[in-house]
Amino acid sequence: MVRAAVLPAVGAPLEIAEIDLPDPGPGQVRIRLAAAGVCHSDLSLTNGTMRVPVPAVLGHEGAGTVVAVGEGVTHVSPGDPVVLNWAPSCGTCHACTLGEVWLCANALNGAADVYAHRTSDGGDLHPGLNVAAFAEETVVSAACVLPLPDGIPLTDAALLGCAVLTGYGAVHHSARVREGETVAVFGVGGVGLSTLQAARIAGAAKIVAVDLSPEKEELARAAGATDYVVASDNTAREIRALTGKQGVDVAVECVGRAVTIRTAWESTRRGGRTTVVGIGGKDQQVTFNALELFHWGRTLSGCVYGNSDPAKDLPVLAEHVRAGRLDLGALVTERIQLDGIPAAFENMLAGKGGRALVVF
Residue 28's CB: how many other CB atoms inside 10 A? Predict the structure, then answer.
């Protein structure tokens, strides 16, 4: 039996419950979690913005130690430190054959599986976004398990599973920030802080952080921001003033709100690039007129999981960590236990802090 945070139904509060995990079957791995990040996507699952089968154990950003492996698993062994990959690519769908593994059509198929049961009543449980990291232990497909490179603290490594891959990829894969360019990052949460660090690593000349909270300025500047703007109706004008009235070369939106996406787009220069990382609801409608699209010549693009290939990008990120260019610990503003997740969700809704990390 292990303790886990269970979402009994969409809109219902999380419940801390004991669950029964089976032994790993063929192609599966059992992992003892060291830590799991509390991501905005988990909140989106609780309120129905994103949907997965329920009841479910949430949590998709995690790292831990292999406890046991099933038949056919050869790339990890018991005792190995690993990072969880919540969106494993199948390798055979159209997107995968194009090399766009972050768009894999089958990446979330595992979320429909029954992977465990409640100890109290034997009820079925689904693994949230494939990996069910809000639990002391989990059983996942071997495709969801990446060996952790040497020299990376296991607890902080959880952040590599989502926030860092997403923020780093948004800068280096989607927006393709070049040395000397100017960048604005909207939203200073876990992904936003990762994006700021990635922009600094890319050699951006000016990095403007934007958030509703004045209290996040210190966090943003520590991550690499050269300027800080408290979000308002004048945000785009303020950013243009900071860039010789031109606007930034690149804006990265990490919030997922229509007004923020529109403001990020307006903050870029003529011919600039806006990358949308934030996950918004269907009610968040963004509008443009045909003339402005032609006149400004800007590019607006979505970004899924940082347009990353975790198997290839994880070693790159590890090298940045070892070299001191990427500070995982700086993303964490709160270390909690399982029963602290609901409060972490409330802080997220209130725009407080960076990443909360569940430490087991």
Answer: 22
CA distance 259 to 277: 14
Cα 7 to Cα 15: distance, rounded to the nearest angstrom:
7
Burial of 295 (0-12, 13-18, 19+ CB in 10 A): exposed
Q: What is the pLDDT of residue 48?
A: 87
CA 310 remoteness from chain centre: 12
Q: Are 56 and 68 in contact (CB under 8 A)?
A: no
> What pLDDT was estimated at residue 49?
87
- According to DSSP, residue 135 is labeled B
pLDDT value at 281 more than 90: no
Would you state the torsion angle of the CA atoms of residues 296, 297, 303, 306, taken in this order, to the nearest 10 degrees? -100
Tokens representing 316? 């790159």
**Which conformational region is residue 353 in: left (phi greater than 0), alpha (psi within -120 to 50 degrees), or beta?**
left
Q: Is the dihedral of CA 288, 290, 295, 297 positive or negative?
A: positive
> How do residues 19-41 score in pLDDT, each as one tens digit?
999 999 999 999 999 999 999 99
Output the CA–CA distances (angstroms, integers) from residue 134 to 65, 175, 177, in the order listed.
15, 32, 34
Two tokens at 267?
Answer: 């903050």
For residue 52, pLDDT beyond 90: no
Is pTM, for the whole model, over 0.85? Answer: yes
Answer yes or no: are the C-beta atoms of 99 and 117 closer than 8 Å: no
Q: Which residue has the tokens 């032994």?
A: 23
SS percent in the chain: helix, strand, coil, step 5: 35, 25, 40
DSSP for 139-201, written as a single string: EEEGGGEEEPPTT--TTGGGGGGTHHHHHHHIIIIIS---TT-EEEEE--SHHHHHHHHHHHH
Question: Rounded to a whole number, what is the largest CA-CA distance in the chain?
Answer: 64
| Cα–Cα distance, 112 to 132 (Å, whole number) | 12
